């Protein structure tokens, strides 16, 4: 006895050790409780899970009784005491079985063995309709399948069904003519069976008893069966040898009770979902049970549903990232990052060391900042008082530095002498209020020269407020001159300068607000361009020419604008041109025709002669104006690097086209060309050509140009007024115009800006 006892203890110890210290992967992740403790788990190779059972006192109901035939090798389970052989049972509700084939064979025209077979299933079992099909094989065959089907669990013998199919062929070889191995009507036919069938009776018959010439001498058979189509492929050889196959696979569905869940749950003694963490679901036969998500096992047994250890299983939907620590919890699991890592464990887990250090630094900074803040608050009050005083001194200082006093004096003098409205000097506070503290949302234009804001002045008047970039202190005098000059240009086609502010470090200029955007926008935007009729274009040209003529001839001292381009011509609602941006303009000293300066302007508009000689004359404006005129005619941009090489420079392209006589090919599509205006277009084109002469002396003066354009425009104008169309299109435009702005796009730094094509070349001794 003693040695036996020692052996058992040793064995138990061994098992315990191998369970506790063995390889983790060897351990079951959840118990595989299949059936009750007093039942055999399997018969041969087939597992028999509860509620199926091989003994009557263990099974849930008689329907689930399985008989194991130990006389076979390996032993085979059968359903109850029927001939239905079970190949597998799934807790998902399926039962795979083998079923006999119905056979009907003929020898010399006489039926030799006619089998009429039927499958009669106990209640709770039905034939699965999606997996199975009814198939008949033969060359003189009609097969009928009939029986009963359930209506939600209730096994009444009504309603019943009857269906079937028929297959004829002249010889076995005919079956090959069809798709070789598909059951498609020749030698084989198939049909589906109704849902919930439980009594399936198969009847086989033939029309001619296989008594026709070709077949007479063969042993000719018909076969019929319900089969799991996933496990059966038709082959023409079956026509002669299916007899030997005997049994074919069939899928059955089973339910654990015939009621709906709702009803089944009411009686806890009969309710089959015994396990915690299991749930009930309805089926067409009745109800079944399943384990909840995160659990696995047999829901029909107490404690059958066991927690899945997702951390070990790591199924495809496992969500912990690399480095994360997985912690299995009851029914679920969590992913967390190890202490030195940051992240949530599901999306990322990154080593955190450097971050943590930085965080610590931030913490220290935070505490220090907090202490510092306290100190600041203590000193704050006295400091702000000091600051306020300082600010006001600063403002005064800037005002003086920016030449405020000089300007104020000169303005007063001007006012006294000419009695005209000159510009106003705004305070910094006023303009800050007007632009809502130079709010980003108020920006309407931005360029190398500065930023333009939309502002509302005290009297509710809308203004454009230009904040320049830092300017050269040496040029203060000049700045004042320009402000003064601009303030004196009182021309209806020049943007009005309302005032300026000198209290800030950089001077602020206040202009009248022009609502309709720049000419450039109108020319190069497809939609807007379509509204620009030839008349409007010529009007804009004439008005611009008028301004330049005025600047060159009427103003004293004469002014050269120096940056004429479509971006600097603004349009108001009625398409009246307003020339803007006098940032680059030059006052021409008396008795001097030309001045030597830093070459400045915009690529594409820049006078080539000026570029070469550095001598700025009125004719440079004429050249730039010529480019604008061509732009008006063609709708093309002055310089466009996206075009083929010969079309990049608009002036060159225009001149070469006109010389080739292709003027009308390059006109803007929106200019309607007809006999009425062909002459006029040619005249304007010739005028533009003259403006673009390489030699300044050969270009016409602005005065001539203005006169010529005005004459043309006036003629056309009277014609246009009788035309309703122009007025119509104008009113149409008012609604669709967004606010636009383009006061300042000059580039004052020394480089070529590829976006604005602005160029500024430094010249020794210039300016
Ligand atoms: C269990 O299986 C053994 C053979 O493996 C058999 O002898 C025994 O009768 C079976 N018990 C039941 C309840 O079927
Ligand atoms: C199975 O056995 C039971 C008795 O144990 C009997 O009443 C029943 O008719 C049998 N069923 C078949 C299909 O033989
Ligand atoms: C078979 O067909 C022949 C004629 O083709 C007929 O004489 C014979 O009676 C038929 N035999 C049977 C069993 O129908
Ligand atoms: C038939 O079997 C398939 C799996 O083979 C299953 O998805 C389907 O639910 C079953 N049909 C019924 C009515 O249970
Ligand atoms: C199934 O149907 C056949 C014929 O229709 C009948 O003979 C047989 O008794 C039925 N089986 C059951 C269990 O009702
Ligand atoms: C039926 O054919 C398919 C492919 O043609 C094959 O994958 C499958 O194993 C075959 N089934 C049987 C039972 O032969
Ligand atoms: C539950 O079912 C059992 C067995 O059918 C029956 O004896 C019992 O009376 C039922 N209990 C209730 C509350 O219906
Ligand atoms: C199953 O759940 C019930 C209540 O829902 C509880 O009382 C019982 O202890 C649970 N059993 C197990 C094994 O967790
Ligand atoms: C794992 O989760 C359980 C239950 O939520 C908790 O008690 C335990 O502390 C966790 N372990 C780790 C290492 O996070």
From TrEMBL:
Keywords: ATP-binding, Disulfide bond, EGF-like domain, Glycoprotein, Kinase, Membrane, Nucleotide-binding, Phosphoprotein, Repeat, Serine/threonine-protein kinase, Signal, Transferase, Transmembrane, Transmembrane helix. Residues 1-22 form the signal peptide. The keyword RNA-binding does not apply. It holds the Pfam family GUB_WAK_bind. Coiled coil: none annotated. ATP binds at residue 467. It catalyses: L-threonyl-[protein] + ATP = O-phospho-L-threonyl-[protein] + ADP + H(+); L-seryl-[protein] + ATP = O-phospho-L-seryl-[protein] + ADP + H(+). It is a single-pass type I membrane protein. Residues 438-720 form the Protein kinase domain. It comes from the Eukaryota. Residues 307-350 form the EGF-like domain. One of its GO terms (cellular component) is plasma membrane. It is found in: Membrane. One of its GO terms (molecular function) is protein serine/threonine kinase activity. Its main location: membrane. Serine/threonine-protein kinase that may function as a signaling receptor of extracellular matrix component. Binding to pectin may have significance in the control of cell expansion, morphogenesis and development. PANTHER family: OS01G0310500 PROTEIN, WALL-ASSOCIATED RECEPTOR KINASE-LIKE 21. This is ATP binding protein. It comes from Solanum commersonii (Commerson's wild potato). The lineage of its organism: Eukaryota, Viridiplantae, Streptophyta, Embryophyta, Tracheophyta.
